[in-house]
Amino acid sequence: MNTPGHGGTPAILVMAKAPRPGTVKTRLHPLLDPQRCAELQAELIRHTMQLTTAHTPRAYLAYAPADGEDTLGTAVPAGVRLLLQRGEDLGQRLAAAVTDAFTDGARPLLVIGTDAPTLTAGHLTAAFTALDDLDVTLGPALDGGYYLIGLRAPHTSLFALDPDAWSTDRVLAATRALAACEGLSVGLLRPLRDLDTPDDAAALLTDPALPAAIAALLQPTESP
C-alpha cells in the first residue's frame, strides 16, 4: 500500500446506484416512467465508465445496493474494479469508497458520479493537473453540490457533512468550509449541470455537449 507523500496510480472512482426501476432518477418521474429512468441510469453509467476508462488505466465503480452488481451488466467495461458502497449516508459511503481506493494504491484520486452527462475528458485532465499543486479540486454543480472531487490524499473528513445536507444546495460551500478548517488548498473547475429534474433535462437537451444516446432517453415517455 502506498502512503501519503509517495507515488501511486492516478485513478477515477465512480459512485453509482444500480439501474433498477423505481429506485433511480426518481425526480424525473414526472417526465419519464420508472423503466425509462432505469434505462437512463444504465446509459449514464455506461457513458461515465467509458469516459473514465479512456482517461485512466485504473477505474473503480462503487455501486449500491449490495446485489446491484447483477443489474450493471454491459454498463461496466472489463477491468473496472468494483467496490460495494458501505455506510448509512452518502458521506459515509464516499469516505468508505475513497479509503478503499487509496488503500488499493490510487493516488491522486478523482471521485465522480454519473449525473453530469456533459462531463468531458477535458474536465478530468484539468482536475488531475490541479492536483499537482493543490490538495483538493472541486467541480461545482449548478445546484450547489459538486460533480467531482479530486484528492491528493485520503481527506475523508471532507465527507463528514450533516446527513441532511447532502440533498441541499449547501454541499459545495460546506465542503469548502471543511477544507479550510483542515488547512487544505482547494481549486475549482468549471461548473456543470447535474441531471436530476425535468428542468435539468430541458436545459441539457439544448446543450450540444449532451451525448446523443442520453438525449434520446430524455424524450418524454409516451402515454399508452
Characterise this structure.
The longest helix is centred in the N-terminal third of the chain and has 22 residues. The protein is 33% helix and 18% strand. Strands 3-2-1-4-6-5-7 form a 7-stranded mixed sheet, with helices on both faces. With 224 residues, it is α/β, with parallel strands linked by helices. A hairpin with a 5-residue loop joins strand 5 and strand 6. The radius of gyration is 17 Å and the shape is globular. The N terminus is likely disordered.
Quick rundown:
The protein is of the alpha/beta class and 224 residues long.
Average pLDDT score: 93
Which of globular, elongated, flat, extended, rod-shaped describes the shape?
globular
Based on DSSP secondary structure assignment, what is the total number of beta strands?
A: 7
Order of helices and strands: EHEHEHEHEEHEHH
Q: Taking strands numbered 1, 2, ... along the chain, how are they ordered across the largest sheet?
A: 3-2-1-4-6-5-7
Number of helices: 7
Instruction: Please state roughly what percent of the residues sit in beta strands, choosing from under 5%, 5-15%, 15-25%, 25-35%, 35-45% or over 45%.
Output: 15-25%
Radius of gyration: 17 Å
**Structural category:** alpha/beta
Q: Biggest sheet, in brief?
A: 7 strands, mixed
Helix content: 25-40%
Low-confidence segments, ≥5 residues, pLDDT <50? 1-6
Termini gap: 56 Å
